[in-house]
Amino acid sequence: MGEKSRKYLIDTEENKAFMNSLTEDLLKFGHRFPSPQGSSYYLGDDGTPWTDRPRETFVTCRMAHSYSIGHFLGHPGSEELIDQALKGLNGELKDTRNGGWYPGVAADGSYLPNKLCYAHAFVILAATSALLAGRPGAEELLDDALEAYDRFYWNEEDGMAYDTWNTEFTILDDYRGLNANMHTVEAFLAAADAAGKEEYRVRAGRIIDRVLGWASKNNWRIPEHFSKDWEPDLECNKDRPADQFKPYGATPGHGLEWSRLITQWAVSTFKEDTASLGRYVEAAENLFLRAVKDAWNADGAPGLVYTTDWNGAPVVHDRMHWVLAEGINTAATLYRVTGKQVYADYYAEFMEYLDDKVVDHVNGSWFHQMDRENHVIGTVWPGKNDLYHALQATLIPYYRPGVSIALAVKNNDR
């Protein structure tokens, strides 16, 4: 095998060096995110803040999380950047009148409407990572985030989370969705790992069991959108298939992401129960293999398509960087847990594609969206708004799969 190919093979020194260089590049790229109030500017193609765009809560959270990891890695300036993001989350993004967090602040200073489970899950994630980093205000933020989440989003009877309230938390939207629940699982596992709150690991398992119930009956293509009674709405947004947060059809990237989170939860939960662990890992494998079969190199060009119909045919052919990041993460995770070569092979394919098409070797970071011919576009994700997906993909492959990534990096838990 040639020298170039070794760069993409998991556990080679060449691949480790490549990953380390990507990690450092990403952390350097994001330094200009904080606004004067601490909320995160949307970053353009070269890392310049786009001050005319909203400063969103979920992006600010992702930056707090990313630079908490940067702190553990010894990246210079990380502590100040975490503190700036916490200033925004404990300050202008927080709704002191109605509770919870606004989705964001518009460029004119007005607040974006509604209250989103998706954003609140990321507040929990940011707070857990900042708490591990020992930053001032992180413990208060985590307490407030869990209290708000438990009060407004967690439905104990369903074992699932609500999605959207109005700004005042007086009207609950009928829509239910799995994207917010997926990031809830991530946040709950982080809360259990970072703060010892094991009840949240149990809750994560309840969500996972329901998701696997739906997926296993649908050829391992996960329904994304639901009625208030949790009936799948498979035709949702068929007329707007590329919707930023609620696209029509199956989203293979979410199949990959669920596969990794399910594996993380199972490894951390069934330490002695190998039969249960095996069942959940098998389900995770089914999700991964379905996603890559449907999406990887599916239309005559390399890359993972964004969405498919319920028969696996591509609908939105664009390539999103986060989908590739989750492919890298999950291939590595399943390889660690199962030892099967097929996952190491997919990892190598994804890494080569990453280097060839997705890493911006001129301006830094990763291109966030490309068309079906791998030309950079920005119809859904213009610019390079945050580091979260890409940064995690440079780290998760080399840390223990049953531990949330911030804690694993802090403890050098490999």
Concise synopsis of the structure shown:
The protein has 414 residues and is mainly α.
Features:
about 425 residues, mainly alpha, two-stranded antiparallel sheet, about 50% helix
User: Which percent range fits the helix content?
Assistant: 40-55%
Q: How many β strands by DSSP?
A: 12
Report the portion of residues in β strands. Answer: 5-15%
The radius of gyration over CA amounts to 20 Å
Query: What's the pLDDT, averaged over the residues?
Result: 97
Widest β-sheet, arrangement of strands: 1-2
Class from secondary-structure proportions: mainly alpha
**Which regions are unreliable across 5 or more consecutive residues at pLDDT < 50?**
none
**Secondary-structure element order, N to C:** HHEEEHHEEHHEEEEHHEHHEHHEHH
Largest sheet, described in full?
A: 2 strands, antiparallel
Alpha plus pi helix count: 14
Distance between the termini: 26 Å
Shape: globular
List the helices and strands and how they pair.
Elements: H1 3-6, H2 13-29, E1 42-43, E2 49-50, E3 55-56, H3 57-72, H4 78-89, E4 104-105, E5 115-116, H5 117-132, H6 138-152, E6 154-155, E7 160-161, E8 164-165, E9 176-177, H7 178-195, H8 198-216, E10 225-226, H9 252-269, H10 274-295, E11 319-320, H11 321-338, H12 341-358, E12 369-370, H13 388-393, H14 405-410
